[in-house]
Amino acid sequence: MTRADAGDAGTQVRRQAGEVSVVLHRLRLEVIEGPDRGRDVELKGTHVRIGTAPSNELALSDRTVSRHHAEVVAEGERYVLRDLGSTNGSFVGDTRVTEAFLEPGARVRVGDTSLAFSPKKKWQRVDAREVESFGDLTGHARPMREAMALLRTIAPTDLSCLVLGETGTGKELAARGLHAEGARRGGPFVVVDCGAVSATLIESELFGHDKGAFTGADRARAGAFEAAHGGTLFLDEIGELPIDLQPKLLRALERREIKRLGSQTPVQLDVRVVAATHRDLLAMIARDAFRQDLYYRLAEVVVILPPLRDRRDDVGPLARRMVSLEASRLGRTRTLSDECIEAVASLPWAGNARELRNVIRRLVALSASETITRDDLSRLSPELLGAITTDAVAVLPAVAAPRAAAPPPSFARAEVPELLGTLKDARERWNRRFERAYVEALLVRVGGDLDRAAAEADVHRKTLERLVRELGLR
To answer: Residue 134 phi/psi, 5° resolution?
Structure first.
């Protein structure tokens, strides 16, 4: 599989003749010379780390070997030996290498130790025909079924996963499902929103700090990696991670250890990492805004969650399920009329399932009868429904006008950004226009109260603050 293919599917996914398979590896290393002669390890997974540190999959007693000496990594159809900055170097045959491809049967030397490399692999087919749910994700549309089937297939493995999708498509639900259906379900599930933590604090958030490590550090604190030991660490909005911190994250993933800020004592890690973003990481790599080596470390499997506009047939069943759950939570009985379902399915849902859920919550809370009608939907103002285009509003009865003191921005046809250039460029112009209009209306409605605004938008306050800054708003 080429790296271009990997960008679409992940380094451990193969697509051939319309079928999708996950590549499962067994990496075997046998010590044939050196103090540990006779040692033989065979591991399921895509990485074997070699060194004297106990956290390595192959931990050696050879004093000429560094703590974190080298690793063997499966990348698609190929295997790579990568030196990790060792003192005495890594060799394939008699050639010292920083990074080199390995053939089955290759001889590798680290320090005074020689190793024989014998990989095995098999392909597990991903069958999406019968999959209609995964964790709290649900759907019948083919793109959604394929995504859920892939998630279900990799859940029992330790493969790293990168979940891609627009805001509100359920990326955190996918990560929680991977944790709940994997071998680490008994451990903690820890979330770090890389876009919600300031650049000055993100390193401490991830790795922790000792007392006195920086101004205001009046006591020691464990970071997210330590908190997630034995479980899963979910790095949400990984595309927001500052470029200068990305090498430190890569090093932690490679060595399976971290050091708290202000400490020289390494802490061993036993964590599965799942990352997610709505950004185009390959485009960010092209402009040096994201490290390619970190991408391939995180993207052994790439799962793309489709937006609601690409799964229109799912909107009705999803809305009905949300109504049932919300009504049960409030101790009520509520259902959606067929006309209401038809109207809901016609809306654009720029915020995807999250926006739909927020509207459903308001409908259940405000409706007076057990059956929620199209009229109930129309009585919600456009500012509550979110970004509804002029065409989408036309399918509803007259919508109650917003308060005169805080009219929401209009998205009339004449105001649509110029529809020229590539689809991607036009979408970015539209999304930025929508974000500004949405945030402006939101801030007016709540009187500038950021805590209330963040709660209403169902985002972290830090995320909203960052968006306000990017848009140049007050």
So the answer is: -155, 115
Q: Coil, strand, or helix at residue 131?
A: coil
State both tokens at 146: 């394929």
Q: What is the DSSP string of 331-373?
A: T---EE-HHHHHHHHHS--TTHHHHHHHHHHHHHHH-SSSEE-
The 10s digit of each residue's pLDDT in 418-433 is 555 666 666 667 777 7
**Residue entry with tokens 């379900």:** 185
Q: How far apart are CA 202 and CA 194, in angstroms?
A: 7
Q: Which residues contact 367 (CB under 8 A, 6 or more apart)?
A: 334, 376
Amino acid at 104: P
Reported residue count of the chain is 474
DSSP string, 34-47: STTTT-EEEEESSE
210 and 220 Cβ atoms separated by less than 8 Å: yes
Please say whether the beta carbons of 208 and 245 come within 8 A: no
List, for residues 299-356, the tens digit of each pLDDT value. 989 999 999 989 999 999 999 999 999 999 889 899 999 999 998 988 888 889 988 9
Written as six digits, the tokens of 56 are 């390595």
